TrEMBL record:
Pfam families according to UniProt: PTA_PTB (PF01515)
Homology family: Belongs to the phosphate acetyltransferase and butyryltransferase family.
Domain Phosphate acetyl/butaryl transferase: from-to ranges: 90-300
One GO molecular-function entry: phosphate acetyltransferase activity
EC number: 2.3.1.8
Superkingdom of origin organism: Bacteria
Upper classification of the organism: Bacteria, Pseudomonadati, Pseudomonadota, Alphaproteobacteria, Rhodobacterales
SUPFAM superfamilies named among the record's database cross-references: Isocitrate/Isopropylmalate dehydrogenase-like
Keywords annotated in UniProt: Acyltransferase, Transferase
Enzyme class, UniProt record, top EC level: transferase
Name this polypeptide is given: Phosphate acetyltransferase
Length: 308
């Protein structure tokens, strides 16, 4: 028997609606001339969630648009050859105010992020860049948010504080007035031999003191984050987050990446991802992302851009 789910989740209706109700942002797509980024751009443009600005090889961009029977003559194309030049062109378009969202196309993640963090791009704000996944169940009724599963490998406490603030801010923007945030470890008790548990308690205490309109708990093991039954069994019923978390702050990229992929591959969740902390929202889409995940990511970018 396989643990893998055959469920196919669509993009979350509430997130799509919020994006469609916001002004359509200008989205600079780094190296857009490939099937997946062009299809995502077409679908999101036709859904009134974005206005594309294409960077990359002009001939490839026009060829892919032609395959989709999509007339892009009304949109700007910045011709750039190769990954580095395409990423630079897209990031700098955002930095000078010609685009409101930066989106990864057909280029490697390290090349894309190198362009985004370059001082020449003008996207740095003094905050740390943190990645957030907002994952919805196949029926769209529940969601969980995870940071950081894709950018910061071994985030220190200051980075996780930034991540916590960004997660709360994002959840406020998408309609959760008081999110419940858990700090992940392997235990609910601070134990010196488990560093993430000590850090989870320190982060909880800091968050309670410094962030309003949210509830926090930590350290919490995964069962106590997700399962009301586990909460009952371990007698944590007075905890404001346990068994009902809206968000999980992870101690490292391995646990975050494993959690995100578990929600997607084992429960059929739809994961929209966004990088926060820059001048504009950054969409770090993957070649493995289905269409629904790409649309969800673009919708998140539109919502955040509208609130800037």
């Amino acid at each position: 028997m396989s643990f893998l789910s055959d469920a196919v989740a669509g993009p979350p209706a509430n997130i799509i609606k919020l994006a469609q109700d916001a002004p359509s942002p200008r989205v600079a797509i780094a190296r857009a001339g490939a099937p997946l980024p062009m299809l995502a751009a077409k679908e999101a443009t036709e859904a009134n969630m974005m206005i594309p600005l294409f960077t990359g090889e002009r001939a490839d961009i026009l060829a892919e648009a032609d395959k989709l029977d999509w007339d892009i003559s009304g949109f700007e194309i910045i011709n750039a050859e190769g990954e580095a030049a395409s990423g630079k062109a897209a990031a700098e378009a955002c930095g000078r105010g010609d685009a409101d969202v930066l989106m990864k196309g057909q280029l490697h993640t390290d090349a894309f992020m190198r362009a985004a963090v370059s001082r020449d791009a003008g996207l740095r704000t003094g905050k740390r860049f943190v990645h957030i996944f907002h994952i919805t169940t196949p029926d769209g009724t529940k969601s969980i948010t995870i940071s950081d599963a894709a950018v910061n490998v071994n985030p220190n406490l200051d980075t996780r504080k930034d991540a916590t603030q960004e997660v709360v801010s994002l959840l406020h923007k998408i309609g959760n007035p008081r999110p419940k945030v858990a700090f992940l470890s392997a235990t609910e008790s601070p134990i010196e031999s488990v560093p993430s548990s000590m850090e989870g308690r320190a982060l909880r205490d800091w968050a309670i003191e410094n962030i309003t309109d949210a509830d926090f708990s930590g350290p919490l093991a995964f069962d106590l984050i997700m399962s009301p039954k586990a909460v009952q069994a371990k007698k944590l019923t007075g905890d404001p987050v346990a068994g009902q978390a809206d968000a999980i702050i992870v101690p490292d990229i391995v646990s975050g990446n494993a959690l995100f992929k578990s929600f997607v591959y084992l429960s059929g969740g739809c994961a929209g991802g966004i990088v926060m902390g820059a001048k504009v929202p950054i969409l770090l889409t993957s070649r493995a992302d289905p269409s629904a995940a790409r649309l969800s990511s673009i919708a998140l970018g539109a919502i955040v851009a509208a609130s800037a």
